[in-house]
Amino acid sequence: MVETDNTAVKDEEKSEEYVYNIKVEQSGPATRKVVVEIPQTRIHQVIDEQYRELKRGAAIPGFRAGRAPQKLVEKRFASSVKEDVRRQLISESYQQALEKNKLQPLGEPEFENPDEIKLPETGSFNYAFTVEVPPEFTMADLSGLTVKKQKLEVTDKNVDEAMKNLSEQQGTLEPVEDRGIEEGDYILADVHVKLGDEVVAHRHNAQLVVRSGRVAGIQIDDLAQQLGGRKAGEKHVITVHVPAEHPQKEIADKDVQIEVEVQTIRKLNPAVIDQPFLDQLGFANEQELRDALREQLVNRFESEVRRAMHQQVKDYLLEHTALELPAKLSDRQRESVVHRQKMNLLMSGMPQQQLEQNLAQIEAQASEQANRDLKLFFILGKVADDKKIEVDDAELNGYIAMLAAQRNRRPAKLKEDMKKDGTLSELFINMREQKTIDELLKEIKVEEVDGQDQK
Q1: Is residue 12 part of a domain?
Q2: DSSP per-residue letters across 38-95
Q3: Alpha-carbon distance 170 to 320, whole Å?
Q4: Nearest-angstrom CA–CA distance, 183 and 165
Q5: Distance between CA 400 and CA 397 in Å, rounded?
Q6: Taking the chain, what is the end-to-end CA distance rounded to the nearest angstrom?
Q7: Are both 128 and 176 inside the same structural domain?
């Protein structure tokens, strides 16, 4: 096993750094191969140093400390000394290779034939390893970018819709037994998506709101008309054409049958916004509630506008920056994205068998997303380094405190959990990237345009 650490490279006798024979070669995109040659004289020098140190403190029966014969010390400790010297030489030369060639590894080094890296009986000690490093690239010229900023204003109609949503969210669901389905009902149903005779997706105990929306990931605008009048226990088949851009290529641009078997029907009784309701929420009157909802909408609109502006900057940087990624790092990132997507699909109800059938498509999408994420990581990281943009502990802890309040958790415990599952580092990177884009937007031309959709 090959190990590395940060041991300083010092020749104890001469009190100066020993310079190893190191060659660095290009070995693929953002990858360097490092070849190290350690001459026999250096091996003997370090071995002699080890024995001198051992002899000073070695406890050998029959001899006082430091008085044992050199040959006896060498015979007794030869095996351990040889291994210690091997480790020391690798550690020193590895660290020197990184420092003198300004290499910044993105992960652990990959040693060639690690089991064969042993001290020779005679001659020089040679080994080689490869490391992935940040890619070199030229930043895109942002002078050609104009970011469009949507002008979104909160209207009374928006507030009325928010009041209606709040009333529905705080409402109650009442079982329906004396009639069929009506628009706005909440139903529990078994859903099967079929392509011909083959079931390509199914979800049991799916909760659906009977209005325009998605069923099993497929948009159905006339769901209320399709299911209107159906009662519990009845089954209805909806034929719908799946858009060509649908992510599940097996059914994209094809007609499928969505079989909905109704189990239960419930109707929504919205909460009445009266004084007891307002008291429960802590508002003196309805106007106070409307003002609070308006403020929430303003914050939400501002957040959406900012997100859209950020996306324009990201898209431009990706399109106008030529950057080759290190292969193994891309593979690791792709595997991470694939894992997340598979878990999301399983949690959304996609059967394991169907997921495996679509694995190639999932992996292709994941590869594209992984490459985008990695390229943005390097591009925005370079900008942040150049502009000395950082996220300090106060900012990070403040954001964690906000997340903890939303989830009704203690900030310290949430932070500890985020450390364990790796999301803390992801949060740090995300916050740094957001700050970086905000800084770039100060230098980019921004054009304000009327908002098209304020729903």
Answers
A1: no
A2: E-HHHHHHHHHHHHHHHHHH---TTS-TT-S-HHHHHHHHHHHHHHHHHHHHHHHHHH
A3: 48
A4: 16
A5: 5
A6: 60
A7: no
- For the stretch 361-406, pLDDT in tens is 666 667 777 888 889 989 999 999 999 999 999 999 999 999 888 8
Q: What are phi and psi of 11, to 5 degrees?
A: -85, 110
The CA–CA distances, whole Å, from 184 to 154, 187, 215, 223, 269 equal 26, 9, 15, 10, 10
Q: Cα separation of 387 and 381, whole Å?
A: 10
Report yes or no on 8 lying in a domain.
Answer: no
The number of beta carbons lying within 10 Å of the beta carbon of residue 328 is 16
Q: Residue 228's domain is classified under what CATH number? A: 3.10.50.40
In a domain, 163, yes or no: no
Over the stretch 333-346, which tens digit does the pLDDT of each residue have? 667 666 666 665 65
The reply to whether 6 falls in a domain is no
pLDDT grade for 326, boundaries at 50, 70 and 90: confident
Say if residue 302 is in the same domain as residue 320.
yes
**What is the phi-psi region of residue 176: left when phi exceeds 0, alpha when psi lies from -120 to 50, beta otherwise?**
beta
Among the listed residues 169, 151, 185, 423, the one whose alpha carbon sits nearest the alpha carbon of residue 301: 151
Q: Please name which of 393, 416, 394, 392 lies closest in space to residue 404, comparing C-alpha atoms.
A: 416
> Is there a single domain that holds both residue 439 and residue 294?
yes
Question: Residue 441 to residues 196, 302, 314, 346, 377: CA-CA distances in angstroms?
Answer: 51, 15, 11, 39, 18
Query: Distance between alpha carbon 144 and the CA centroid of its chain, in Å?
Result: 30
Query: How far is Cα 365 from Cα 344, in angstroms, rounded to an integer?
Result: 14
Q: How far apart are CA 329 and CA 323, in angstroms?
A: 14
Q: Partners of 38 in the beta sheet?
A: 125
Report the predicted TM-score, pTM, of the whole model to 2 decimal places: 0.71
**258 with 237: CB under 8 angstroms?**
yes
pLDDT per position as a tens digit, 202-230: 888 889 999 998 888 889 999 999 999 99
Q: Are residues 410 and 300 in the same domain?
A: yes
Number of domains within the chain? 3
Domain carrying residue 222: 172-269
Residue-wise pLDDT tens digits, 154-202:
999 999 999 999 999 999 999 998 999 999 999 999 999 999 989 988 8
Residues 6+ apart with CB under 8 A from 169: none
CATH number at residue 345: 1.10.3120.10
Extract the tokens encoding 198: 């083959």
